[in-house]
């Protein structure tokens, strides 16, 4: 079974078509783990009448930590050497969290942050499943020990309690999957029931051994079919774990339950053959090695990942797994000195953990350095001092198109660009996915100003805040900022990929803001939004519109913008729509970190930089018909057919779509000149 589980996971990560649901292999691992660990604990309890917690944790430490520590160290060093320098601080933090089995909670938290939506996966992300297991085993042996002290060898109380845990965790999993998919996927509270199912099978193993052989054989085949079917039917769009996890979990439980009767002709006969046994023996190490190899080696080779390459790398990871199993994992846990006492095993575990944490911290304190050239023109000063600011900016953009080394005075620093957020973000006035209400009035610019101006839209409106704040302060306006992640201004319903459900929070928030704007009669409303479909457009019934032509989807988008303009149009209120800014096509700071000696490699052809140009043209046409001032952004970012990632000394983008605060602030006088004041 371990062979099936790890193979599904590896092939899924390698990108094999039709196996996008191979992540269910982790659920199979949870069931197996719950069964095996509970079996060992019950045997010890039956044999000795007690459970030695020290021995249990020492056994876990010497079994898991030698291999995982080696993988952690190699991954940290490999990331330092070959991954973009922008990523290393986060990876170093991941290593520390992984070392102490808390990375699942870190990933859950990061997963609901919009600014991490396009972030590359951590090479240590797969450690989340190990963290879930160890969190379960911090509690489970203690519970068994308490039950043994209170009720001796009677297991009814154990079964009842375990059933309650399974039911509570499953219900929680279903509910949290519907509300916040990342917390459901990575949470120990939503996965505990899967380990609990394995534990229940272990408790009932002696009775299951008496199953009729034909029934037991059929149960194993049905279970294997359920596991494989879930891997074939599920994909990234499947709300998971939730109720969908029941199929692979119960399938794995059925294989184990049927296997307790040792039936002839069952799936256990197939799973007991040499190839499956060998893969199963190395499954833990293969699971550890495959993911960092897939994440790091393509960068080391400077090639784009593809399925043939990924399969080759996965095979190489298996070779590494075999080597580490025989050279590290087995020698350490079977060493005579280690086996002499539980304290020694725990000491070895602590030493390994501290070594991994110290290496990660040392790397974070001395991060990779980037190539730097001479200082470039100070773009902000040059534009501000020019008699014709727009012409001066265009000249600097053209000169920057063929940039070699990063300027010594580039701002913000490439390594810190991901943290270059508008200054109002810490106040929580920019709402994240789950938020529908701001914590206060969110007034900026000149808070004492008599005239009111709104900045309204998604994060592509938010990245204009530095310019709008400066303009509002200059003119004595109160700037009311109303922005929300991935929630565009047009009245359309979209699907939230992070939640794997309709983005109802967006619709609720947008309706509230539109009503507020209508009620307050501001001097001006400046609107901006990205033009992408996000997770997909929805019809009135909440169904995803995956079929149909681009023209049909564009028509929905245009109608949504028209509805927004209509909702806030009022006498004395000027409406302004800033067309969407260009997209770099990749994470710009990561690209520059990887090519700091040739920044021009990170420039984007202008023909490819703007999302859905026909749609944007239709939206702009509709805006002008509605009496809205339309501001074109292309001349502020592109010259000729190129949109550079660095313009003079200013970094253009902070990630894969948002402009930096320095770039937005530099554009303030140009934006001010276009506003209908």
Automatic annotation (TrEMBL):
What's a single GO BP term from this record?
lipopolysaccharide biosynthetic process
Q: Per the record's keyword annotation, is Transmembrane included, yes or no? A: yes
Where exactly are the transmembrane stretches of this chain?
A: 24-42, 63-83, 135-151, 158-177, 183-203, 215-234, 240-263, 284-301, 307-325, 346-364
Sequence ranges assigned to domain SGNH in this UniProt record: 429-672
Q: What keywords sit in the KW lines? A: Membrane, Transmembrane, Transmembrane helix
Pfam families the record matches: Acyl_transf_3, SGNH
Organism (species): Actinoplanes lobatus
What domain of life does the native source organism fall in?
Bacteria
A GO CC annotation recorded here is: membrane
Name all Acyltransferase domain ranges: 1-322
Q: Which InterPro entries match?
A: Acyl_transf_3_dom, Acyltransferase_3, SGNH
Query: What is the name attached to this protein's record?
Result: Peptidoglycan/LPS O-acetylase OafA/YrhL
Sample GO molecular function, one term: acyltransferase activity, transferring groups other than amino-acyl groups
């Amino acid at each position: 079974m371990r062979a099936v589980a790890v193979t599904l996971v590896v092939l899924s990560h390698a990108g094999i078509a039709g196996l996008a649901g191979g992540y269910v292999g982790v659920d199979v691992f949870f069931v197996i783990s719950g069964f095996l660990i509970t079996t060992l604990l019950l045997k010890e309890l039956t044999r000795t009448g007690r459970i030695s917690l020290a021995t249990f944790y020492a056994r876990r430490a010497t079994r898991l930590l030698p291999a995982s520590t080696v993988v952690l160290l190699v991954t940290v060093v490999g990331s330092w050497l070959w991954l973009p320098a922008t990523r290393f601080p986060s990876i170093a933090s991941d290593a520390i969290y992984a070392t102490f089995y808390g990375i699942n909670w870190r990933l859950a938290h990061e997963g609901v942050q919009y600014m991490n939506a396009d972030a590359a996966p951590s090479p240590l992300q797969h450690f989340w499943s190990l963290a879930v297991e160890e969190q379960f085993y911090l509690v489970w042996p203690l519970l068994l020990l308490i039950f043994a002290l209170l009720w001796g060898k009677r297991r009814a109380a154990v079964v009842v309690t375990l059933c309650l845990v399974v039911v509570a965790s499953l219900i929680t999993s279903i509910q949290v999957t519907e509300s916040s998919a990342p917390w459901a996927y990575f949470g120990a509270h939503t996965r505990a029931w899967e380990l609990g199912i394995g534990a229940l099978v272990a408790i009932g193993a002696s009775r299951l051994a008496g199953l009729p052989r034909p029934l037991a054989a059929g149960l194993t085949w049905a279970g294997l079919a359920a596991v494989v079917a879930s891997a074939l039917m599920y994909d990234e769009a499947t709300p998971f774990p939730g109720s969908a996890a029941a199929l692979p979990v119960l399938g794995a439980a059925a294989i184990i339950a049927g296997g307790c009767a040792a039936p002839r002709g069952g799936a256990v006969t197939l799973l007991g053959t040499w190839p499956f046994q060998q893969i199963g023996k190395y499954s833990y190490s293969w699971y550890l090695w495959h993911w960092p190899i897939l994440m790091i080696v393509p960068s080391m080779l400077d090639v784009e990942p593809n399925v043939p390459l990924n399969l080759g790398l996965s095979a190489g990871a298996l070779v590494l797994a075999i080597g580490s199993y025989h050279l590290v994992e087995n020698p350490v846990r079977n060493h005579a000195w280690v086996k002499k006492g539980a304290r020694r095993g725990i000491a070895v575990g602590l030493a390994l953990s501290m070594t991994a944490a110290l290496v990660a911290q040392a790397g974070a304190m001395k991060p990779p350095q980037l190539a730097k050239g001479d200082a470039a023109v100070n773009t902000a000063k040059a534009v501000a001092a020019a008699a014709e600011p727009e012409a001066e900016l265009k000249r600097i953009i053209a000169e920057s198109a063929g940039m070699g080394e990063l300027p010594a005075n580039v701002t913000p620093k490439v390594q810190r660009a991901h943290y270059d957020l508008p200054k109002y973000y810490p106040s929580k006035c920019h709402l994240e996915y789950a938020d529908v209400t701001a914590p206060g009035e969110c007034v900026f610019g000149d808070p004492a100003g008599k005239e009111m101006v709104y900045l309204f839209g998604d994060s592509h409106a938010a990245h204009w805040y530095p310019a709008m704040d400066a303009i509002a302060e200059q003119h004595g306006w109160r700037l009311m900022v109303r922005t929300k992640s991935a929630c565009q201004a047009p009245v359309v319903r979209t699907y939230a990929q992070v939640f794997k459900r309709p983005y109802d929070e967006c619709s609720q928030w947008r309706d509230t803001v539109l009503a507020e704007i209508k009620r307050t009669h501001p001097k001006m409303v400046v609107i901006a939004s990205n033009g992408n479909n996000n997770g997909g457009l929805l019809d009135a019934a909440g169904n995803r519109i995956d079929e149909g032509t681009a023209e049909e989807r564009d028509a929905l988008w245009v109608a949504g913008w028209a509805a927004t303009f209509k909702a806030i149009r009022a006498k004395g209120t000027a409406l302004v729509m800033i067309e969407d800014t260009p997209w770099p096509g990749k994470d710009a700071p990561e690209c520059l970190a990887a090519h700091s000696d040739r920044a021009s490699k990170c420039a984007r052809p202008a023909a490819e930089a703007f999302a859905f140009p026909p749609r944007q043209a239709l939206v702009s046409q509709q805006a002008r018909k509605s009496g809205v001032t339309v501001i074109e952004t292309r001349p502020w970012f592109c010259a000729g057919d190129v949109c550079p990632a660095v313009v003079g000394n200013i970094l253009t983008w902070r990630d894969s779509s948002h402009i930096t605060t320095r770039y937005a602030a530099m554009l303030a006088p140009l934006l001010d000149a276009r506003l209908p004041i």
